[in-house]
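Customer escalation, tier 2.

The customer says the design service returned an amino acid string that "doesn't look like it belongs to this structure." They asked us to rerun it and document both sides in this ticket. The original structure tokens are below, unchanged.
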């Protein structure tokens, strides 16, 4: 009865306290990360989203940042008392991975400061499909053509971001 009451009162993150919870969170996180960064996923050998490029519109960028921050907060909230050594190490390693995934977008803000992000996404999206013979050429070429069709939208996103950077620099003459 007390456990049910606590479950109703405590946030979900506070309840995730077992190595199985950590593994489930990690598996869910990596699947999410692969789906929102399809070019990197394809380059690593997972070809589920070969016909897509990463969405660099600011709402999507902010949603990705929020998702990583929430996953990191959940992992940090996990207490490892009673866990085996390997499970405690897994938690440390996963937390470090999430810290890295949170650091660069938070501090470097590449989508807002580096126009090469957009160029690299388009060129790597095609190159990652052509350099490995994981599927018939026709299938890989079709995925590459579809990804290329997303390139103008990515270039528009880059132009909007660069305009925002320029405007910010004019307003905040540091």
């Amino acid at each position: 009865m007390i456990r049910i009451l606590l479950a109703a009162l405590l946030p979900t993150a506070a309840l995730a306290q077992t190595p199985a919870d950590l593994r489930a969170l990690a598996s869910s996180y990596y699947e999410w990360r692969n789906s929102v960064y399809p070019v990197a996923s394809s380059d690593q050998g997972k070809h589920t989203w070969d016909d897509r490029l990463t969405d660099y519109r600011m709402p999507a960028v902010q949603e990705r940042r929020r998702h990583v921050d929430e996953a990191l907060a959940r992992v940090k909230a996990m207490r490892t008392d009673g866990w085996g050594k390997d499970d405690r190490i897994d938690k440390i390693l996963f937390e470090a991975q999430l810290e890295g995934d949170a650091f660069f977008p938070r501090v470097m803000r590449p989508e807002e400061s580096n126009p090469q992000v957009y160029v690299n996404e388009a060129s790597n999206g095609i190159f990652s499909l052509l350099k490995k013979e994981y599927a018939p050429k026709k299938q890989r070429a079709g995925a590459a053509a579809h990804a290329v069709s997303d390139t103008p939208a990515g270039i528009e996103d880059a132009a909007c971001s660069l305009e925002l950077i320029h405007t910010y620099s004019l307003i905040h003459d540091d």
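Tier 2 assessment: The sequence is consistent with the input. The chain has one domain: 12-171. Confidence is low (pLDDT under 50) at residues 1-10. Sent an explanation to the customer and offered a walkthrough call.
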